[in-house]
Amino acid sequence: MKRILILQNEILAYRKAIYNYLSKKHNTTIIHSGKQSINKTDSYDEIVLPKYSIGPFFFQKKLLSYIRKGNYDIIIAMFDLHWILNILLIFHPHKTPIIYWGHRYSENTLVNYVRNYILKKCDAVILYNDTEIERMVHNGINRNKIFVAENTIHVDNYENCSNYKKNSFLYVGRAQKRKKVDLLISSFASIVKEIPNNIIINIVGEGDENDYLEQLASDLNIKDRVFFHGSITSSERLKELFKNAFAYVSPDAIGLGAQHSFAYGV
Question: Measured between alpha carbons, how far apart are the two ends of the chain, in Å?
Fold first, then answer.
């Protein structure tokens, strides 16, 4: 049984399934700086370290000390240049294989130069998809150390809910500007007088954008038709929201919401 260490900024609820799967086969520990995540059904270990920032970079206190004490066989680190200690691991004098987990080049030439250097030095990289493999190979990255693990979500209570009575539009995800949920709210406001009074919008997820979105709903006089639920991780509560939805709406960027919707026939 291998001792696997995974370095993350936080533990996202949808990733717990893969952590638990790994922990059935290997001793799996996640070091992160988010909220405590483990409950009685989880089998992985976690270490929560406080973080601090210097400019755009984040540091996890005593991270290297925990790595040394853990005597791990494999380290899988988030491939984000802002989390500087993750990147500096490749310069640390140890024999533990370093695998980076992340995706895509940026539009910044200097940043991409740094990425290529790191990818050449590390032992392997796990990508979300295969769209940039050829570009990496062209930049001198060994094809044999590039692997793909599609980003997805485990839905244990999936069901075709398309025949249920509908009364809402739904957004589930982080409240980020790039998702343009404000377009959903403003579009809804433009037709609100033409649709039944029981039709509503449900917005699930945390993020800095929620304050703006709540104020927008108030300014457009539809505050009583837009409901902000915050973070929901319960699959049963989420299923109820999907069951009642005509559609899942993400006006711009869309991620795992697509898979989540399909799992419920939405």
Answer: 41
**Strands 200-204, 3-7: pairing kind:** unpaired
Cα(23)–Cα(205) distance, rounded to whole angstroms? Answer: 28
- pLDDT 10s digits, 114-160: 999 999 999 999 998 889 999 999 999 999 999 999 888 999 999 99
Do 33 and 60 touch, CB atoms closer than 8 A? yes
Of 104, 128, 129, 124, residue with least CA distance to 115: 104
Cβ pair 79, 101 in contact under 8 A: yes
Q: Are 247 and 266 in contact (CB under 8 A)?
A: yes
What is the pTM for the complete model shown? 0.81
Q: Report d(CA 11, CA 85) in Å as an integer.
A: 18
Q: Which helix (H) or strand (E) holds 115?
A: helix 109-121
Q: In 3-state terms, what secondary structure has residue 203?
A: strand
Long-range (24+ apart) CB contacts under 8 A made by 206-213 are: 206/174, 206/175, 206/230, 206/231, 207/174, 207/175, 207/176, 208/175, 209/175, 209/176, 209/177, 209/179, 209/181, 210/175, 212/182, 213/175, 213/181, 213/182, 213/185
**How do strand 57-60 and strand 51-54 relate by DSSP bridges?**
antiparallel
Separation of CA 57 from chain center: 19
